[in-house]
Design goal:
The structure is a single chain. The chain has 443 residues and is mainly alpha-helical. The longest helix is centred in the last third of the chain and has 30 residues. The termini are far apart. Helices cover 62% and strands 8% of the residues.
Length: 443
């Protein structure tokens, strides 16, 4: 049982070599990411039976016999992540604390290694870092409460706003930029910048609501919550590296901050995906959805690229638009909208909701439009021609309507593939097409 002592020794030795060789927080963050991944990989099978014992379990509805599996394993992932981020604090900031000039003025903020100059964190970055962890802890607590008490969706929808308060306050104190850049073609009419004031804070609060909930409503099949989160994090990491490797520009510190949060997240999520992959041995629970979504909102807000973040959420935006009629009561919404398992074929098919009463005029109009677009499959009474039911309005059911029945793992791979392609398109838009719209970029 456990990892062999020689493996632990080599792991610690490798981390020590990385730290001593580079002495840069980014290298240390990579090392901590490996450590966090190993802890999660070993902790999940050990803690799984204890989770079942205390009531954190669920039925795998898309498997024969509906076996019980440990649920809310996102708690393990998020707690390891938070402790790793605490341990990382001295490594991220120690040089800024000790490299001082006379009288204790901390005004040295660059270190030269070879021909490269890396900027160290400014002092206010510590406040941003701690506020981000505070917001994240609050969101993990909400997710755990949801897993424990099964909070209704409408009741928990806006709770992330309260978790976002610490980072919004720090943003106001340290940055407080609330203008948007006007596209070059419109600048002769509106000027270079438009100040939108409190509306920008409203947008950032909405982002903190959207990100966790958008992950949470693409769920119900093995691996899909973690899979989409890993792809999104990889896209943001690539975006960050495109800035960091330039070694010049005002945005490097912000993207380093983003990397420090995303690399350990990737480290903890990959082993969770291993256990949650089809056929899953554990479920991630709402805790992981809240945890992952809040991390994306945090790096977007504190990293000052909150608008860019949405480019990596294109499938989630589509799913939210598609789900809107059910989420807000225009179309009847069941407790679970996951696809159904066909026991004879072993394939997933789109689930349907049969209406308990005649749908409203607005409902019928929306469903007919969605049907024309191929988003849903309707159940029509052959005599009255009235709509009796519809496939549930999710991107998962939409794919099954368009592509036909699929095995669960194949469906997850399709969704992850779509997420990856849309993420690459988002990167292209940000780094190529944006130059056609804006004269200057924030490199």
């Amino acid at each position: 049982m456990g990892w062999p002592l020689n493996s632990i020794f080599f792991l610690i030795s490798a981390i020590a070599l990385i730290i001593n060789k580079y002495e840069h927080p980014l290298a240390i963050s990579v090392a901590f990411s490996f450590v966090s991944g190993i802890f999660v990989f070993k902790a999940i099978p050990i803690l799984g039976p204890y989770f079942i014992k205390v009531g954190f379990y669920g039925k795998d509805l898309n498997k024969k016999g509906k076996p019980l599996k440990p649920e809310a394993m996102g708690i393990v992932c998020s707690m390891v992540y938070i402790y790793i981020m605490f341990l990382f604090i001295p490594f991220a900031f120690y040089k800024y604390f000790v490299m001082t000039s006379g009288g204790g003025n901390r005004d040295i903020y660059e270190v030269v290694r070879g021909e490269k100059t890396f900027k160290l964190f400014f002092h206010n970055k510590l406040g941003e870092y701690l506020s981000a962890i505070l917001s994240l802890q609050s969101m993990v607590l909400l997710g755990a409460a949801d897993d424990l008490f099964d909070i209704r969706w409408r009741d928990k929808l806006f709770m992330p706003v309260f978790s976002a308060i610490p980072i919004l306050v720090v943003y106001y104190i340290d940055f407080d930029v609330t203008y948007v850049v006007v596209p070059t073609i419109l600048q002769p009419y509106f000027g270079n910048l438009i100040e939108i004031g409190w509306l920008y804070y409203l947008y950032m609060a909405a982002l903190s609501v959207f990100c966790p909930n958008s992950i949470n409503i693409i769920a119900g099949i093995n691996g899909v919550e973690v899979g989409q989160s890993i792809i999104i994090s990889l896209c943001i990491i690539i975006n960050d590296l495109l800035y960091v490797f330039r070694l010049t520009g005002p945005s490097i510190d912000s993207h380093l901050f983003s990397l420090y949060f995303l690399l350990p997240f990737l480290g903890t999520s990959i082993p969770l995906l291993y256990y949650n992959w089809y056929p899953a041995s554990v479920f991630v629970g709402d805790t992981y959805c809240c945890f992952s979504g809040m991390i994306f909102a945090i790096v977007g807000i504190i990293g000052h690229f909150s608008k860019t973040i949405l480019l990596f959420f294109i499938p989630q935006i589509f799913n939210f638009i598609l789900s809107f009629p059910q989420l807000f009561g225009i179309v009847e919404c069941p407790r679970h909208r996951m696809p159904n398992l066909n026991l004879s074929t072993g394939l997933l098919e789109p689930s349907m909701i049969m209406f308990s009463k005649k749908p409203s005029l607005l409902c019928r109009i929306i469903l007919k439009i969605f049907s024309k677009l191929g988003f849903v499959r309707l159940k029509i009474d052959p005599i009255t021609k009235e709509i009796q039911g519809t496939t549930n309005l999710t991107i998962i059911n939409f794919l099954l309507v368009r592509l036909g029945p699929r095995r669960e793992d194949k469906l997850t791979i399709i969704i992850m593939g779509i997420q990856a392609v849309m993420g690459l398109i988002g990167l292209f838009i940000r780094h190529k097409m944006a130059k056609l719209i804006y004269l200057n970029d924030n490199y």
